[in-house]
Amino acid sequence: CYLINKNISFEGKPLTPTSWSAGFSEILSLREQLKQAEERAEQVQRQVSWDRKIEVDRLSGIGWDR
Fold first, then answer.
1. Which residue from 17, 18, 28, 58 has the highest number of Cβ atoms inside 10 Å of its Cβ?
2. CA-CA distance, 42 to 49, in Å (whole number)?
3. Which residues of 38-56 are buried (b: 16+ CB within 10 A; e: fewer)?
4. 3-state class of 64 per DSSP?
5. Which domain of life is it from (predicted)?
6. Residue 8: which residues within 8 A CB-CB, separation 6 or more?
């Protein structure tokens, strides 16, 4: 059972079809920004892990610079 509240507001302003559309567009934009931020964070995490492995190998004497 779904109830529809016709007096929904956003930041105290009544929502209109235009504001619904703008809100939906903003959600899509924020979702894309989040996806890009997550991808960048994963890339940085992989690079940090790789750099850490190289440094541990170097300090333990099994580095590639021998």
1. 58
2. 10
3. eeeeeeeeeeeeeeeeeee
4. coil
5. Eukaryota
6. 14, 15
Whether the full predicted model's pTM is greater than 0.70, yes or no, is: no
Evaluated on CA atoms 38, 40, 46, 52, the torsion sign reads negative
Distances (CA, A) of 45 to 26, 58, 65: 28, 20, 24
- Hey, what's the torsion of the CAs at 57, 61, 65, 66, to 10 degrees? -150
Rounded to whole angstroms, the Cα distance separating 15 from 5 reads 11
What token pair was written down for 29?
């934009």
